[in-house]
Write a structure and sequence with these properties.
Helix content is 36%, strand content 24%. By secondary structure, it is of the alpha/beta class. It has a domain of 118 residues: P-loop containing nucleotide triphosphate hydrolases (Rossmann fold, 3-Layer(aba) Sandwich). Strand 1 and strand 2 form a beta hairpin. Helix 7 runs parallel beside helix 8. The protein is globular and about 55 Å long. The termini are far apart. Bound molecules: adenosine-5'-diphosphate (ADP) and magnesium ion (MG). The site of adenosine-5'-diphosphate (ADP) has 10 residues, from helix 1.
């Protein structure tokens, strides 16, 4: 009897994206496992954001394969369908509802299928309250639950937005430069939070702050000119001569 193989969570192979002949991604190949965290580094223009655009269906590759859980062809699906498969993306700027409380932001994210007003006016069920409580714990905001999101620090807003993504129960989270603009303590807490999330979900983090990348304790992929330049432990990638030349040494 053969042991069933769990397909890779995310599989990119030979993905190329051309803008007027310029290859933002050039035969990019990358695989992310279930419950794996991966840090993506590389100079500006390396293709990091374009890679996330391909995974989330914002950009169609000209060539290549992009599979989720082995069967879902991401190149054939639109952004909504990909989000529904369980791929969540966090952009650099937090997009929370500033005038609503932290709790209400999470409630809105839990029930995003109903209109926001109907959601806030309806009585929340015990089940919903339990989920809000557990999300608050997870993103370290129980003490802030009744504050308006607009009053939170930059770091706390980022965590709230991560909580809102977790409310959708994604299987893979894509996070762009979470540590930018954070205090040292917030940066350390964010690394803890992401490590915690990656115990049960795939997490791809694009980041420039090398001390933060170290705190993630994840495998690192360095992109350059739309391809993988180096991949491995942070120590191995940092010691790679080409990585030093195009990125770290500058
Ligand atoms: P990174 O996020 O690593 O800084 P990007 O993925 O944003 O890199 O960009 C990769 C390259 O593709 C850059 O040279 C950028 O100028 C180019 N690029 C990205 N998006 C577009 C677009 N819509 N049209 C033309 N060129 C683009
Ligand atoms: Mg970018």
């Amino acid at each position: 009897m053969t042991v069933p193989v769990t397909p890779t969570l995310l599989y990119l192979d030979n993905v190329t994206v051309s803008f007027d002949g310029f290859r933002a991604l050039n035969a990019l190949s990358l695989a992310i496992d279930h419950a794996e965290m991966r840090a993506i580094i590389g100079p500006n223009g390396a293709g990091k954001t374009t890679m996330m655009d391909v995974i989330t269906g914002k950009t169609q590759p000209n060539e290549g394969t992009a599979l989720f859980e082995g069967t879902h062809d991401l190149t054939a699906l639109d952004e909504t369908a990909i989000a529904e498969l369980g791929i969540g993306r966090k952009f650099q700027t937090p997009t929370v509802f500033e005038l609503h409380t932290v709790e209400d932001n999470l409630l809105l994210a839990l029930k995003n299928k109903r209109g926001p007003l109907a959601t806030l006016l309806s009585r929340r069920t015990n089940r919903e309250q339990e989920r809000i409580d557990s999300l608050l714990e997870r993103v370290r905001l129980p003490a802030q639950r009744h504050r308006r999101a607009g009053e939170l620090s930059h770091g706390q807003k980022q965590w709230l937005e991560i909580g809102m993504l977790l409310a959708q129960e994604p299987k893979l989270l894509l996070i762009d430069e979470p540590a930018a603009g954070m205090t040292d303590q917030e940066t350390a807490d964010t690394a803890d939070l992401l490590r915690d999330i990656a115990k049960s979900k795939g997490v791809i983090v694009v980041e420039h702050d090398m001390s933060f990348v170290r705190a993630l304790g994840a495998k690192v992929t360095c992109l350059h000119e739309g391809s993988v330049l180096a991949e491995g432990s942070l120590d191995a990638v940092s010691a790679n001569e080409r990585v030093v030349e195009v990125y770290l040494g500058r």
